[in-house]
Amino acid sequence: MSTRIAPRSVMLAALAGVTVLTSACAGRSDGGPEDTAYVARDVETLYAEAKSRLDRGNATFAAALFDEVERQHPYSPWARRAQLMSAFSYYVAQDYNKAIASSQRFLSIHPGNKDAPYAYYLIALSYYEQISDIHRDQKITEQARTSLREVERRFPQSQYASDARIKLDLVNDHLAGKEMEIGRHYARSGQWLAAQLRFQNVVEQYQTTSHAPEALYRLTESNLALGVPQEAVKYAAVLGANYPGNEWYEKAFKLVERHAPGVTAS
What angle do CA 212, 214, 220 make, to 5 degrees? Predict the structure, then answer.
């Protein structure tokens, strides 16, 4: 998607629970050898340097440093925070696969942790950010929907669930758009039964999306082409009842008048 999906207030509020600043001095910031992730440092200094790098916009390096916190100090209380901060840093760096992997690892180790809701949310966002246009395979879109539903199911009263519901509407609209594209292709090829099945799926599965009015019109058109005028009239009537004045209803009305005058719905 072209826009960042998580409201800044949501992301900052979530991070407030897992980001702990320290008074320890940060390491060098001139990009020299001392800044590599493999130099042994005490946990507070290493964590502070990672946070500093993230704040300055170097999210990829910050993620590596947060990973190093856990590697060098696996039994420290800082390791848990660093795991989730690493996932967030990868997300900021748009390395979504690593963000997902880091979040999933956090959940496998700390399934009941108070920050688990945010980890689930971050997984969903990372899938969502990878949604491509409707002309491509929609596997990622399906994964985004599954992950957003998981957030809503597990944490229905949370701020994450509220945002997930908004994103689900956009995901469903995207999936409906893909169904419509395939249906139109079949219609242009004269494969009316295949087209009808796609448009029917939009009406049944994505009826609250922006594509529903056109899907009903296309069902009117498809049924006329298949020689079932009663069904065509039925879909035109449903379109008129739910979207009166819509441009697709006007087209459906004209189509029925021209090809099925006097026919009543079955």
Answer: 105
